[in-house]
Amino acid sequence: MAIGNIIRRDGGPGKAVAVWRWSRRAVLASTALLVAVGSGVAPARAEYPEKIIKIVVPFAAGGGTDIVARTTAQEIQTDLGKPVIIENKPGAGTIIGTQTVATSEPDGYSLLMATFAHAVNPSLYNKLPFDPHKDFAAVSLIARSFNVVVVNPASKINSIPDLIAEAKAKPGKLNFGTFGIGTSAHLAGELFNAMANVKMTAIPYKGAAPAISDLLGGQIDVMFTTVASAASLVAAGQLRALAVTSAERSAAFPQLPTVAEAGVPGYAAESWYGLYAPAKTPAAVIARLNQAVAKAVQSGGFKQLATNEGLIMVGSAPQELDRYVAQEEERWRKLVKDANIEVQ
């Protein structure tokens, strides 16, 4: 706090005394610090963020969630003024990556890009190593998405009514590929079974790529797959799209009907992307992150994603994410129970 010193010779040649010169501001600041320490009041914290922020993605790199997370990171770091990096921690149906954030310091520097599984896992597993409600603080519902019902172009199934008729004619014989038990591709198909009163058999795969490979090869009959995994193949004529699983038609596939309007009234199955922080993260930090996300979803990067991935951009308040996920959890819990779906 001293702004300099002067050397004064005193007491004769060769003797010097250093005299510190203090500014009035430095004296006042020093006094305030001593008063704060003496009273037990901690000095004010520096404004968030002060260092690199990490977003944990509970899936491998390259998938839809990873793409959304990286776009989010790229956009919010500009607003926040600090780097935002991605850490991919796949495994155990998103549980490994999710637990990492649940047990992180609640300081806003470790975040989770949660998806459909966050609302479904409580119904699939008897016990989770975290509480999806108590261990997390909602930041924002970033976007919602949907799946596309696709078949091999050589298939005689050309529409949702055709799919229903074929499934009813061959109970249990028609099969649909999934990305694993409890994934959006799986539960969208099980919801179709329940609401169309048919019985198709789910065939689990370790991801979208091997499932689509078998669909292209004719080993499975149909998929309720993500837009990201199907769009280019549909455009190239390698897959035939029958409908979208959203409640309304999509600008990404304006020519496709919804499953509901094509023959299964009331049907709707969505995926989503939401940002969470650990529980007890300061409200001011949550508010700052929410502000950055709300700005990010209006960016050119996200507009491009909306076109390519069929996303519906949201950028909600934290309480809206809590409300939405609670509704999704309740909805899928009933289906999981009714369909006797179990994790092997």
From TrEMBL:
Pfam families: TctC. It comes from Bradyrhizobium daqingense. It comes from the Bacteria. This is Tripartite-type tricarboxylate transporter receptor subunit TctC. Belongs to the UPF0065 (bug) family. Keywords: Receptor. PANTHER family: BLR1237 PROTEIN, TRICARBOXYLATE-BINDING PROTEIN.
